[in-house]
Amino acid sequence: MKNKFSLFVVIIFLSFCFVIFYKGLNTPNNYTPKVNKKKNIPTFKAKDFYSNNYVNSDKIFEENTFYIINIWASWCVPCRIEHPLLMQLSKNQSIKLIGLNYRDNFNNAKKFIDDFGNPYSRILIDKDGTLGVEFGAYGVPETFLIDKNKDIIKKFVGPINQEIVNEIKLIIK
Amino acid sequence: MKVLKIFIILFLVTSFSELKSDETKDILKNKILKNIRCLICQGQSVYDSESEFASSIKLIVDRKINDGLKEKQIYQFLREKYGDWIVYDPQLNKNTYILWLLPLLLFLLGGAIMSKKLKFKN
Q1: Taking the model in full, what pTM does it have?
Q2: CA-to-CA distance for A147 and B92, rounded, in angstroms?
Q3: How many domains are there within chain B?
Q4: Domains of chain A: total
Q5: What is chain B's Cα-based Rg?
Q6: Is there a domain that residue A22 lies in?
Q7: Structure confidence at residue A36 (pLDDT)
Q8: Which of A12, A30, A33, A53 is exposed most, by the fewest CB atoms within 10 A?
Q9: Domain of residue B47, CATH code
Q10: Are B121 and B85 part of one and the same domain?
Q11: Residues of B contacting chain A (CB within 8 angstroms)
């Protein structure tokens, strides 16, 4: 009786371990920070891509409209994939796209924009990646949706897809 | 001559103290970086990583220390940006209270079992 009981306990324990490890193997290891609560946009100063002058964040987001902050770089392959979708979004009148050129070379970034089109109303330079940190980003591409109250209401890690574009369109409607 | 000597001594003292302040800043910076998780690397701290994310965080931490922010304020800043996960040392809150209290509970439970057994033996 005692033997049967210990066998039962061992089996239960092994099945428990199996479930834990199986679940662990199936969950992706990459951590994605959640945007649970609305965050106000950080105040910052950044260099404008074309004029090379410093601009304040309150000047960048001064209009009463939705904004999208898109972190991109010419060396980032997924950025090329999402670019046509950004071009599509830029045609929408109720949203303005701000590009954050992340750790890039000016000539390469300019060539990227010349080749694929410019969806952004303004491009800012983030030479050392610290501006991205202010937004809570950890790589490229990353997209943030900012509402009229200047709160970051959505964060999309990785290239955006048609589904995300539709979601954004629904929010800004 | 005496004035020159005093001047040299003063110069040496001030330059060494500056060196010391740089050193303490470096120690603090390394301590903070070792306690920050590199979110895009597997099992590495920002201190150990050479990724782009880690180098940006290193710059930010350096800047914040130079701005005069305290260690806790820097952790708080990073927590606000990336959530609790970025710091290796979790704070006691509603998500982590089990983590903090479970060892204490197990310790008390163990103690209770032991004292009961000892009483039984006696």
Answers
A1: 0.74
A2: 32
A3: 2
A4: 1
A5: 24
A6: no
A7: 53
A8: A53
A9: 1.10.8.640
A10: no
A11: 39-40, 42, 52-53, 55-57, 59-60, 63, 80-83, 85
